[in-house]
Amino acid sequence: MNATAIRQGISYVTNSKGEKTALQLDLTNLAVQEIVEDLMDTLDAVERRSEPTRPFEDVKNEILASRDL
């Protein structure tokens, strides 16, 4: 992924005064898709940062036990 490819997939929307008011993302551009996915993952992490955590081994064992049904 390079900056030029990303920039090609981003356009600004401006008002009648030429002021930038929005951003338009070309989701057919793979580089832009990756950036948007990373942004969404980051937002998910921020929203969940106060949730309690569980040790990986506990989660893994729970999943493996459910498969043995």
List the helices and strands and how they pair.
Layout: H1 3-8, E1 10-14, E2 20-25, H2 30-48, H3 56-67
Antiparallel strand pairs: 1-2
Model description:
The protein is an alpha+beta fold and 69 residues long. It has one domain (3-67). It contains three helices and two strands. The protein has helices at residues 3-8, 30-48, 56-67; strands spanning 10-14, 20-25. Strands 1-2 form a two-stranded antiparallel ribbon. Strand 1 (10-14) and strand 2 form a beta hairpin. The longest helix is centred in the middle third of the chain and has 19 residues, at 30-48. The radius of gyration is 20 Å and the shape is elongated. 0% of the residues are buried. The mean pLDDT is 94.
**How many runs of DSSP E, i.e. beta strands?**
2
Listing every helix as H and every strand as E from the N terminus to the C terminus, the arrangement reads HEEHH
Shape: elongated
Structural class by secondary-structure content:
alpha+beta
Number of helices: 3
Distance between the termini: 43 Å
Lateral strand order in the biggest sheet:
1-2
What Rg do the Cα atoms give?
Answer: 20 Å
Helix content: 40-55%
Chain-averaged pLDDT: 94
Total domains: 1
Strand percent estimate: 15-25%
Pick out the low-confidence regions: none
Largest sheet: 2 strands, antiparallel
Keywords: Plasmid
